[in-house]
Amino acid sequence: xxxxxxxxxxxxxxxxxxxxxxxxxxxxxxxxxxxxxxxxxxxxxxxxxxxxxxxxxxxxxxxxxxxxxxxxxxxxxxxxxxxxxxxxxxxxxxxxxxxxxxxxxxxxxxxxxxxxxxxxxxxxxxxxxxxxxxxxxxxxxxxxxxxxxxxxxxxxxxxxxxxxxxxxxxxxxxxxxxxxxxxxxxxxxxxxxxxxxxxxxxxxxxxxxxxxxxxxxxxxxxxxxxxxxxxxxxxxxxxxxxxxxxxxxxxxxxxxxxxxxxxxxxxxxxxxxxxxxxxxxxxxxxxxxxxxxxxxxxxxxxxxxxxxxxxxxx
Length: 314
Ligand code: ADP
Ligand code: TRP
Hints:
By secondary structure, the chain is mostly helical. It folds into two domains: about 5-185 and about 285-310, Rossmann fold, CATH 3.40.50; about 210-275, no CATH class. It has 13 helices and five strands. The strands form two sheets. The chain has a three-stranded parallel β-sheet with strand order 1-2-3. Helix 1 (about 20-30) links the parallel strand 1 and strand 2 (about 35-40). Helix 3 (about 55-70) packs across helix 12 (about 255-280). The longest helix has 29 residues, at about 255-280. The site of adenosine-5'-diphosphate has 18 residues, from helix 1.
């Protein structure tokens, strides 16, 4: 058995990957893949809370798996699988539903935001953190690399583990979120959090033309000397010591600064874009998911035998 600590995370397959996903979650995952025993999965049942189109769902599952591989997660070292291949996740979520309370889950930011917007909130959206707790706890996870917006969800998983252990005996490890402070919340082209749902994102595998379109659409205001939204995205790619002279030289010349950002983004994205293009035609994604699903299922099934025995079901 490996003595390494365990890392696990996932990205919902609900759209194109963007550079906020990369800097917030994927970059640290790639850097840590040797230090931890690592698992990355695709939470397709989580996507079902917002996406009700089977073909699109399948397409975005492929987008996320190709994304994991193209940014450098190594399938020889890392366990990669799809949530819906391992039924234990939904089974454990039900068990958690029966120990955590409505008032506790009502504190969820995602749920409260949806309520505040007057949306019709599904039970799945309300219950999302319990399925996520199952994802994390089934695999004895120590750390969960995520962006800031997922911090509360990991805390929910931790509280759920504590409560289960208290009621039924020790079954679960207590996980912790791992957040990179400088990129905890990557801003989008309008200055708000970059997100699929705000349509303010720069796709992680954008072509040069798409990059240029997005960068030219970055909202600039004429307050201050620097176009802050341009600078903030630029800072993801370069240190202040490299950028500040450029921004001073080109003060007021937003076009030149945006062109410099297009150049730097394209240089950063191009190798991953090329790798993705190759993998898309060459890689046996179905085979990878099949094998990964089988391995994940073995781990999850051993954990569930213990859980079922502890709660008194078959
Ligand atoms: P989105 O908000 O675009 O729907 P997801 O919820 O699918 O993104 O997020 C997948 C992962 O990427 C999570 O770990 C999340 O915290 C991280 N992430 C998403 N957007 C950002 C961002 N703007 N800054 C930092 N991390 C982010
Ligand atoms: N909630 C995460 C997101 O929106 C996706 C997710 C589901 C996840 N289960 C997880 C992340 C378990 C980390 C660990 O991106």
